[in-house]
Amino acid sequence: MTYLWIAIAVLLGAASLLGMARLVVGPTILDRALSVDVLLASAIAGIGAWAAFHRDPTVLPVLLVLSLLGFVGSISISRFVARKQRDKAESHERSGTP
């Protein structure tokens, strides 16, 4: 059981580190949004693994809130980027630049 915990910790830690690297380096807002989703998924997986091993159902509401937060955040950012690109395209059309 200890080896399994070590493997889970290493994999989730690696995913978190790669997500943090993409958050710092990522040139676009979509790269940063994706990295926040990776960090959130890592946290959800870690909490879920802990709950499964300890057979503790009290953290299920926390998992539900985190998953809803990730979903709503992703949708909000994608709508923001889509609106920004649409406004940019409309301004190019009005100015006559390709």
Automatic annotation (TrEMBL):
GO terms for cellular component: plasma membrane. It is a multi-pass membrane protein. The keyword Membrane applies. Belongs to the CPA3 antiporters (TC 2.A.63) subunit F family. It is found in: Cell membrane. Keywords: Cell membrane, Membrane, Transmembrane, Transmembrane helix, Transport. InterPro entries: MrpF/PhaF-like. It comes from Actinorugispora endophytica. It comes from the Bacteria. This is Multisubunit sodium/proton antiporter MrpF subunit. The chain crosses the membrane at residues 6-25, 34-53, 59-82. One of its GO terms (molecular function) is sodium:proton antiporter activity.
